[in-house]
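Morning!

This is the sequence you dropped in the shared folder:
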Amino acid sequence: MLILGSYSVPGIARSGPVTLENAHVRIVITPDLQLVRPGSLLEFTDLATGTDMAAGGQFGGIQSDVFIPSTGTITCLSDTEAVFQSPFMYDHTGSETIPVETTILYRLAGRGLEMVFTVETTGETEFLHPLEVDFHMKAWETATFMNQTTECDRQFDLQAEQGPARVSGDQVVLLHTEQPYPLSAKVLFPNPSKANLVITAHSPTVPAYLSLRLFDVDQPRENCLGPDLHSVIPAGDSSSYYVGFSLEENAAPVFISDHPHGYERTASWMLDEIPMIHPDAGYIWSFSETSSGPEILSAQLIQLLEEHPEMKMNWLVLPDGILTPNRDSVWFEPGWEDSWSHWHCTWRISTEATPEFRQWLLNIQEDAYTWADRVNLGSHGYHHTPNPDSSFGEFHEFITYEPEEHFERFAMLNSDICDMGLDPGKVCRAIRYAGHRTSLSGLWATISAGFDFYCNGIRWWDWNAGEYFRDTYISKFQTPEGRIWGTNTVWWADYQSMYPYEYLSSVMTRGKHGLLGGHPGQMLAMGLVPEAYQRLDSVCTSLETDYQHFGWLFPIEYGDFLEECYGMLWENVEYSPGGLSLSFNGAATLGETLVIFLPEDAVVYQLLLDGQPLDWEVREGERLFAVLPSISAGQHSLSVTWDITGISGLNTPPDAGISIPSPVFGAAYLRASGLPSYESWTASVYDLSGRTVTESGGITGNSGSLEFCLGMDTEPRGLYLVRLVAGGMELRSRFVYLGG
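The structure's back. Tokens below.
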């Protein structure tokens, strides 16, 4: 039976259910376990249709397997705002607890609801299962996932039988139902770095859930041993997550793009490994400094960089590779026979490479070549193999679960990088493990060594909601020593492998990040097959020309971008028929881009960040993009003003108006009357993208009338909009210009 509880009394903490209601929606929050978890909604009703969107299931319920928030209190901040607080989480099937404090802010916002979930660890906490916020989907029939690039990344039939799906990089979910009344809702997850989305729709008898996964758990890939990959969060760590739920037709979702610098899709190269030439194919310490140099592989990679001047690459260093060709020329340091980290071979760069080869690496690190600023050195591990016997078969270094040995491995890797004359702070930041896989001990050792980005595997064989996975898989893991971000390799470039281009094109069409990889020798067929180079060149050209607003990034550049976005928090979004305002917290220094899904036929007049004008661009599909300038950590505000028709006005007396002949050929004259006398005025002309075409200004005379030429001589034909501001009055009009 639904418990409605008591209506809110501002400023008073309550131990029972609390009801918040405005003219549009009503919610009931429970502080204790009542079929739904403490802090979840017992009711979320749209008053216009009577639809209860909680529908008797979890709505805002936090869980990590059997652990849920303990009974808490609800403090009413106003008639439309309340905060649930719980001091710890507990096993609701037993007595175990974990030191995780949860806070949920609920705020009614017109015909919708804003929620901010905060999780704080009051003691070190190991999340052996995902930490998620669950939203019951019984009231809905379909869920359409959207992002900055596409209005339909994927769509789910919530009534059909299908397996779970994990989605990265989407910010808006459009929910819809036809029964019992047609109803749609936009669910806003404005920051894709904060969490991944998981949707389950098992069968018609088991209602679907949409979950926000705050801390992830991942099975070790393929033949890796040991526990699931997971996080250990240090005491005192606090993270907050905003979710907006709106039934308003004019709600315009505003969110952070999944890409920096206004891009709508991006890609990165990770190539392993250096040394590129193995002794069975040539001289191991050979290299090229130009595209016409003597060593064919590095020369052709340089040529590829020259022919694609925006492209960037991560060349991965293997400091001491031990593989089948050199397995008979290995030795161990005295007293370290039992530690594979202290075995070495004739391919060890720090002791065996020529001074010229090590200088070449240093020159790349220090951007000494014309192309070197677009090459980062990264890591491919230390040996490539996991133990002395592995060079006879198992080649993948971190497939075993050996915490002590793996931490020692990275200590040796760091030491060798220093002995090469390189900077570990530059080289030891991005890694692709041998075989694209690691155990938990390898992952945690990587974090401890200061790495910030890793390749989290090949996943195109994974099954995801009834189809093979052709998407980006963003992961985030954390320990007391740091946090690391990962994405999957979406396409492998080796010539003889010939993986389908559809693996890559699907990711680009979805508007996601594509991590690309390959072995230079096999990508380029050792320079012996011209078609191999032409194939790579063609793929890069296709990315740059076939996909609008595409950009190349270093892998670590994408990781740094995700990390900075993780520190940004939406706090409040207010919509109106003529715009929106946003309050958020955080810093932006890496080209973070705001995106707004504008209402149909909206024309943007002004975009202000912290009260200052901000440039924007409106792209096809009425999507506004605005690249944030560098802003420091702290509170920030964004306001956007638009008009749906382009002909309305503000604070306009009945006798005031403007007129422009339309269509007009040649000089376009504006006439205005009814303006306030002796006031400054500004007239701005905009094209339909929101670009300011021309501006005029002056002081009104005694008559309050104006007549002047808009100065359209150099503008192309099309529909234009005019905005005239005089004193506190604003007038708008539009006209068709046919050229001069």
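Headline: Residues 403-419 form the longest helix (17 residues).

More detail when I'm at my desk.
O.
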